Amino acid sequence: MGSCCSCLKSGSDKAAETETELTDQKQSYTFNISRKMSAPTTKIQGGNGNSGDNDNLDLSGEGLALVDVSIEQDATYWEWHIECPDGTHHSSTTTTMEDDDYYDDDDFFAEGTSLKFGVTTKKNQNFYRALESNEDGDDGNLDDGTQLMRTIPNVQNGDTIGVAVQQSDLPMIQFLLNGEPLHELAISRFRGGVYPSVFVREGYNVKFVWEEDEFKELSPHVRFGPLIPERGLI
């Protein structure tokens, strides 16, 4: 029995060491918003969208955009920092999370004009061409890539959107606005390989932030560490 416990402990130690090594090695790697997986109507700042560029984290334009890393960790957290070039917010009225109509679907900045955050499955340019060809069609079952994303209305200049994903126990995606959890938006019971994603709208600049020392807010729990690269990339 003693040797079995020793083996179990050894395996646990090795797993912890592997996680630590991956976390250390991520410092030499930078993530990017992927041009290959993002809508052609989005505007990614700098470089050519390949790993190794250091300035492909800022996004504007309109459409779905994916970060070039598949989530493999049990629990991870990242942020999107919001900037409006004119320094203002894009809502005609000022509301707070306590207001009854903050998530009103009839609000001007509800589903049709607000940013969406979350994760999505891998995409390519054929996906966006299919969406474009169906713009005037009636295929209501066509996947638009946002099933695992949520609309956050009334996003203002300087806001921070936090996304926390856990895959062990009960898989769940949690959302935070300026550090405040939005429990009613949480997504549970998802499966498969997913990538951090955002649906950006004209008039906004968003920045993907994955390095812990650049976070503006705390993750919902200490177990949610910053993103690390896929094992095949390090």
Keywords for this entry:
about 230 residues; alpha+beta; Jelly Rolls; 9-stranded mixed sheet; 5-stranded antiparallel sheet; about 15% helix; SPRY domain-containing protein; SPRYD7; B30.2/SPRY_sf
Number of strands: 14
The CATH superfamily label reads SPRY domain
- What does the largest sheet look like? 9 strands, mixed
How far from one another are the termini? 37 Å
Q: How is the CATH topology named?
A: Jelly Rolls
Radius of gyration: 19 Å
Low-confidence stretches: 5-9, 47-54, 90-110
Q: State the CATH architecture.
A: Sandwich
Concise account of the structure shown:
The chain is of the alpha+beta class. Helices cover 14% and strands 27% of the residues.
Would you give an account of this structure?
- With 234 residues, the protein is of the alpha+beta class.
- It has one domain (31-233): Jelly Rolls (Sandwich).
- 14% of the residues lie in helices and 27% in strands.
- The model is unreliable at 5-9, 47-54 and 90-110 (pLDDT under 50).
Strand and helix layout:
Blueprint: H1 2-25, E1 33-34, E2 42-44, E3 58-61, E4 63-67, E5 75-83, E6 115-120, H2 125-133, E7 149-152, E8 160-166, E9 172-177, E10 180-181, E11 187-188, E12 195-200, E13 205-209, E14 225-226
Parallel strand pairs: 5-14
Antiparallel strand pairs: 1-4, 2-3, 3-13, 4-12, 5-8, 5-13, 6-7, 6-12, 8-9, 9-10, 9-11
